[in-house]
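User: Here's a structure from my thesis project, written as structure tokens. My advisor, Dr. K., wants to see whether a designed sequence matches the one we expressed. Can you design one independently, without my sequence as a hint?
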């Protein structure tokens, strides 16, 4: 029986075009979903858009559009972007979807009936940009939002409140007894520290604007955007619908992983599990919170002109190179600085010089020396034995890193194997073996190289979606038969290879010129309409 795996991105706020920060989360989830499929899991991968709130209403008005027209456009842009990055999700949720709206209304009613929500008045500080309420201590004397740095406003209005404090001790106990609930460990410490300061009851409705989900019991109020948005993970599975098969399969009987950026950690690590406690739903998920991708050391901001959009790279290098770079530099444990020169350097070193060159050299030698047909030969060559040991070690490390959500480290594992495989060529000098007519030894070397390339390419499948298919074809292998459960060495006794039609990753010869052209493209992308 297959194991189930449900992975979600944060649903992205519908306020503008998505840049590489958002793309990193989606590519991360897509890569992990592809890995789980290789491992035989039944996978459901979900992404989407958070479309309600005062900020959306204001931005739509500024553009002369209704909020629905505005969000329709942004949802289409998001879907087009994910398609261009080869992100193969199963469901795209929108918080304006009729089924989501109806389920959230029922959930709110249930919380209200239970006594977890009550009507009161909010008098405090609010950030429109982040759709978040803050205390005076959080915004400081300058009254700046601790997340986006913008000025907060004083908000005073009738509001429904959720009794977060009621569940504070229960949540702390849950976190303590579920050590893998929040990853990495440093993020868990942040959450626990915040909870222990004391949770304040949370405003969960707004009445000063209309763009949201109306509350059945009091339609002049709309549901606060974070309560509305967080329940997408359940409504997308039909939690409150007649057919609960997806909910039962992918929530109750599945490994569930929410991937979020650090700025929305609190909402997912505190609000979300407490909301689930309120409606008696199991907290059956692990939360992985990553850091930010910075541009030249600063958080990306369109007003600063330092935003990078994926198309800047994909139209020049293709989606595989961009996916590789994003995951290889993924901000797992600390913020990551992204620059055009870093991208070109990583592209040249890892993809063009190392992997791409290894594949083309090996295939060319197989065609030149053995007319494209290379068979397994028994050998006691110490260099080949060393390479095979490295392959088995790498696969073991790769699994460990993937299971710990360290996809960046998993790619480092593969890069190390690529380097070791290239080293075998230097150690054995196939051209010299051919001149000396040591054909059996030469064939065993080429076979070992092809086997290593096969395993490397299997490991790259979650990231290099298109290039790996090209390599499998050149190796004479059906790519859909290459799972990680049966990678074992010497499983394919004979290779019949064929030439690549073009280099996998053409080397960027003039790095300075490439950098300048990328910067020009970045500047051009900033001028495009949302």
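Assistant: Designed independently from the structure alone:
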């Amino acid at each position: 029986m297959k194991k189930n795996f449900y992975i979600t991105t944060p649903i992205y706020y519908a306020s503008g075009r998505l840049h590489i920060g958002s793309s990193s989360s989606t590519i991360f989830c897509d890569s992990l979903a592809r890995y789980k499929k290789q491992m035989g899991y039944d996978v459901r991968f979900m992404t989407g858009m958070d479309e309600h709130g005062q900020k959306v209403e204001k931005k739509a008005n500024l553009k002369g559009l209704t909020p629905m027209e505005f969000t329709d456009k942004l949802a289409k842009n998001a879907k087009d972007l994910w398609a261009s990055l080869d992100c193969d999700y199963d469901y795209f949720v929108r918080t304006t979807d009729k089924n989501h709206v109806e389920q959230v209304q029922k959930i709110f009613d249930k919380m209200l009936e239970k006594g977890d929500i009550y009507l009161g008045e909010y008098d405090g500080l609010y950030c429109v940009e982040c759709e978040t309420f803050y205390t005076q201590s959080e915004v400081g004397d300058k009254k700046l939002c601790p997340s986006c740095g913008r000025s907060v406003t004083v908000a005073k209005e009738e509001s429904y409140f959720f009794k977060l404090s009621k569940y504070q001790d229960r949540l702390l106990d849950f976190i303590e007894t579920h050590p893998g609930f929040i990853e990495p460990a440093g993020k868990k410490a942040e959450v626990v520290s915040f909870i222990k300061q004391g949770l304040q009851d949370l405003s969960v409705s707004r009445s000063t604007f209309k763009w949201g989900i109306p509350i059945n019991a009091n339609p002049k109020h709309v549901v606060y955007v974070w309560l509305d948005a967080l329940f997408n993970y359940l409504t997308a599975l039909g939690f409150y619908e007649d057919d609960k098969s997806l909910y039962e399969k992918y929530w109750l009987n599945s490994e569930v992983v929410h991937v979020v950026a650090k700025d929305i950690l609190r909402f997912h690590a505190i609000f979300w599990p407490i909301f689930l406690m309120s409606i008696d739903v199991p907290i059956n998920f692990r939360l992985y919170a990553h850091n930010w991708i910075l541009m030249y050391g600063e958080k990306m901001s369109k007003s600063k002109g330092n935003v990078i959009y994926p198309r800047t790279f994909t139209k020049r290098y293709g989606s595989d190179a961009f996916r590789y770079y994003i995951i290889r530099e993924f901000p797992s444990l600390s913020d990551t600085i992204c620059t055009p020169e870093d991208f070109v350097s990583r592209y040249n070193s890892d993809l063009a010089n190392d992997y791409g060159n290894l594949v083309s050299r090996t295939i060319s030698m197989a065609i030149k020396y053995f007319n494209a047909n290379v068979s397994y030969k028994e050998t006691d060559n110490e260099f080949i034995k060393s390479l095979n040991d490295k392959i088995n070690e790498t696969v073991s490390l790769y699994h460990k890193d993937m299971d710990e959500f360290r996809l960046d480290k998993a790619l480092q594992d593969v890069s190390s194997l690529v380097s070791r495989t290239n080293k075998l060529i230097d150690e054995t000098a196939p051209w010299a073996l051919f001149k000396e007519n040591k054909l059996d030894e030469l064939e065993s070397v080429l076979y070992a190289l092809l086997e290593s390339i096969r395993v490397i390419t299997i490991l790259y499948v979650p990231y290099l979606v298109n290039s790996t298919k090209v390599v499998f074809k050149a190796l004479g292998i059906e790519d859909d038969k290459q799972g990680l459960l049966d990678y074992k060495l010497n499983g394919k006794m004979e290779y019949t290879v064929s030439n690549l039609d073009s280099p996998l990753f053409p080397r960027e010869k003039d790095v300075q010129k490439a950098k300048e052209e990328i910067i020009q493209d970045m500047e051009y992308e900033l001028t495009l309409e949302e």
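When you compare it with your expressed construct, this may help: The chain has 19 helices and 19 strands.
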